[in-house]
Write a structure and sequence with these properties.
Layout: H1 20-39, E1 45-46, E2 58-61, E3 73-77, E4 83-85
Parallel strand pairs: 1-2
Antiparallel strand pairs: 2-3, 3-4
């Protein structure tokens, strides 16, 4: 797994009980990797505004495909309904 764009997507557990230990190991490893990124403060680059931003959302805008107003950087969505660069 790479650090960039790492997301946890749950999958259907196998019907074969012999495959369950491997499935659980892989699932827990994926969860661990995502939690490490969060712990380290990683924010994926966003190339488009979210469809329905909510107050308190934080995004790293690429500044080209999506420029909330002040170029590339980290923005938060405030109570006034605007993206503010940090």
């Amino acid at each position: 797994m790479t650090r960039e764009f790492l997301r946890f997507t749950p999958t259907i557990a196998p019907a074969d009980t012999d495959s369950m230990p491997r499935y659980l190991d892989e699932t827990f490893e994926n969860i661990r990797a995502v939690l490490e990124l969060l712990r380290d403060g990683h924010i994926d680059v966003s190339y488009a505004a979210p469809d329905k931003p909510s107050q308190g959302d934080i995004r790293y805008a690429d500044g080209t495909s999506w420029d909330p107003g002040s170029g590339e950087g980290i923005y938060f969505y405030n109570a006034a309904g605007a993206w503010t660069k940090l």
